[in-house]
Amino acid sequence: MSGLDDVIAAETRLSEVDGRNGRLVICGHSLDALAGQQSYEAVLTLLLPDVLSVCEETLRAELAQARLRAFQEVASLDTDLVSLSVTEALRALMARLPDGEDKSVALLQIAAPAVFVPALIRAKAGQQPIPPHAGRGHAADMLAMLTGNQPGDEQIRALDTYLVTVSDHGLNASTFTARVVASTRAGYASAVLAALGALKGPLHGGAPGPVLDMLDAVGAPEQAAGWVAAELGKGERLMGFGHRIYRVRDPRADALKSALNRLGASGGMDAHRLALAESVESAALTALRAAKPDRALETNVEFFTALLLEALGFPRDAFTGVFAAGRIGGWVAHSREQIETGRLIRPQSRYVGPKAA
Ligand code: ACO
C-alpha cells in the first residue's frame, strides 16, 4: 500500500514492463528489437507520433535545430550554476526553458539535456562548451559536445543503445510524477522538471554513480566476495541490484551488457574494469541469493549503465543527467498521454492522525 505496488494508475500504449518474464515492450516492439538496432530519434517517433514528426530524418533535423536553440542557455554559464552538481545544475537550466503543450516545447525539452549535460561537464572541468552540429544525430552530437571530437561508430551506437534502453519504462517514479504534473495542465516543461527531481534519488536514477564507487571500493576481483559480504553484513544495499517490478533479470541490463561487449570488442572499454565488474556482479548475485532466497534480486539497468557511461567518457556525477536525456522522451510522451485523458490525477489518503477534539 505505502509504495502503491499493485495500483494501476494509468493505461498506456507506451511501454509494458513484464516483471515476471523479464521483458520490456516499447510501443509494440520488444527492447531486443530496438536497443542496438534503432536510433533514439526512431524510438521518439514511436513514443510521440501525435506530437513529433513520424519521419525519422525530419525529426533528426528538427531535434538538431532544438539543440541549437538549447545551446543559447549554456553558451556562457554563471559560476553559481557550475558549482552545483550536474543534476542540480541541469534542473536549474531546465527550469529556464519555456513551458506549454505544443511541439516546439516538446522538442526543446527533449533536446535540452543532451546539450546541457555535456556543457555542464565541460564547465566543471574549466572548459568551454562545444556547440551542437545540425548535421549529426542526437547521440553522436551529445558525444561530440562532450569531447570536442567526432565519436566513433561503436561509441555512437553505444550511446544510442543506452538512450533507447532507458527511453521509457512503465509507471516508474519519475514518469508517474510527470503524469501527475501534466494532468494539472501545467505544461511539458513543468512535468519534466518535477520528473527530474524524482529521478535524482539514489533509489531511482541516482544509482549508477554509486555503482562505480562500489567498484572502486572493491578494488580487485579477488576482493569482491569479502567486500560484498561485509556490506550486506552492515545492512547496506548493493547498488545496481534489485528492482521493484522485475522478479527475474532486468532486460535492460542485458541490452546494455551487449552494448558494452561490442564497445569492448572495438577497443573502447578497459578490460580490467570489465573483469572487476564481472567479479563484483557474480559475488553480489551469489550473496544476495543466499541472503534473500525468497526475493530474486538480480542485476538491474544501473549496473551496466555505470560501466557504459564511464567507457563513453561521462563522469559519474553526470550519469543521472544522461539518464534524463534518454528518459525525457518517455516523460514527454506520458505527459501527452495523460493530457489526452483529460483527467486530473487526484488519489485519496486515509487519515490515521489523532481525532479532532
Ligand atoms: N542490496 C541488498 N539488499 C537489497 C537490495 C540490494 N540492492 N535490494 C533489495 N534488497 C533487500 C531489501 O532490503 C529487502 O530486505 P528486507 O525484506 O529484509 O527489508 C528485500 O531485499 C526486498 O526488497 P524489495 O521489496 O524487493 O525491494 P524494493 O522494491 O523496496 O526496492 C530497489 C527496489 C529500490 C531498486 C532496491 O532493490 C534497491 O535499493 N536497489 C539498490 C539501488 C538501485 O540499484 N537502484 C536502481 C533501481 S533501477 C532504476 O530505478 C532505473
Automatic annotation (TrEMBL):
What are the GO cellular component annotations? cytosol
- Its Enzyme Commission number? 2.3.3.16
Q: What is any Pfam family matched here?
A: Citrate_synt
- Protein name per the record: citrate synthase (unknown stereospecificity)
Q: Which GO terms describe its molecular function?
A: citrate synthase activity
Query: What InterPro entries has UniProt attached to this entry?
Result: Citrate_synth-like_lrg_a-sub (IPR016142), Citrate_synth-like_sm_a-sub (IPR016143), Citrate_synthase (IPR002020), Citrate_synthase_AS (IPR019810), Citrate_synthase_sf (IPR036969)
Q: In which pathway does it act?
A: Carbohydrate metabolism; tricarboxylic acid cycle; isocitrate from oxaloacetate: step 1/2
PROSITE patterns recorded:
CITRATE_SYNTHASE (PS00480)
Q: Does the keyword Transferase apply?
A: yes
The residues forming a coiled coil are: none
Similarity comment text for this entry = Belongs to the citrate synthase family.
Q: What domain of life does the UniProt record list for this protein's source?
A: Bacteria
Keyword Acyltransferase tagged? yes
Please list the GO biological process terms of this entry: carbohydrate metabolic process; tricarboxylic acid cycle
Keyword list, A-Z: Acyltransferase, Transferase
